[in-house]
Amino acid sequence: MLSERERERYKRQVMLFGEDGQEQLKKAEIFIAGAGGLGSPIAIYLAVAGVGTITIADMDVVDQSNLNRQILHYDRDIGKKKTVSAEEKLTALNPDITIRAIDCRIDETNAADLVGNADGIVDAMDNYPTRYLLNDTALAKKIPLFHGAIRGFYGQATTIIPGTTPCLKCIFPNAPPKEVFPVVGVTAGVIGTVQATEVLKYLLKSGDLLTNRLFIWDGLLARGEEIYAERISCCPACGGLNPETTPGGKKK
Ligand SMILES: [Zn+2]
Q1: What would the pLDDT profile of 4-28 be if each residue is shown by its tens digit?
Q2: pTM as predicted
Q3: How far is the CA of 139 from the centre of ligand 1 (A)?
Q4: What are phi and psi of 149, to 5 degrees?
Q5: What is the pLDDT of residues 131-174, one digit of tens each?
Q6: Do 188 and 40 meet the contact criterion of CB atoms below 8 Å apart?
Q7: How close is the Cα of 57 to the center of ligand 1, in Å?
Q8: Which is it for strands 213-218 and 154-160: parallel, antiparallel or unpaired?
């Protein structure tokens, strides 16, 4: 049940999806991998929308060079753990939700535990090895993965439903070379907001998810495009998964 305060807080979106929808969001738990450029807008928008439990994992400390895009962190936070800074801002934005900020590097030994029983995993990472690990974790647990990546003015996003849609390895069999890439904060804003929208749609069971297609954003041309993606039957990550065994994976 929503409190009076929550009814008032979420009034303008309850107009869209009703109190039932808002309660669905309140019951939900989302895992965000990364409290950086993408993680910031994703966490902010999921927090203000009223997603009941947000777990956010990051191992870094706020650096001055993060501040052009990582809008959860302020100048005064330089030197602070990103998880501490993130928890402080998100709790101040919405004290009615639970924020679990976990200071750690996501690796093979802890990924499954960190994700726990979350309803969705959000890829807000800046490297493909961790993205592939999140993909494997999502497939093993049959939890949707909301992918996003940015570089400069370009960004991409897709939603992966294990066993039904192509997984990250189907779409990107090989990781691009590791680099310190250029990036502008607005691109993180565009792509992070697309990912957060996908999470809300998934939880509310509304609209058409960004599945079986990769959304590509070119900020310089102000143009969005879609690339259709198919499952690869011999994919080393998802080749054996069957849609019938995946919750939410069946097509209507
Ligand atoms: Zn695959």
Answers
A1: 999 999 999 999 999 999 999 999 9
A2: 0.96
A3: 9
A4: -150, 150
A5: 999 999 999 999 999 999 999 999 999 999 999 999 999 999 99
A6: yes
A7: 25
A8: antiparallel
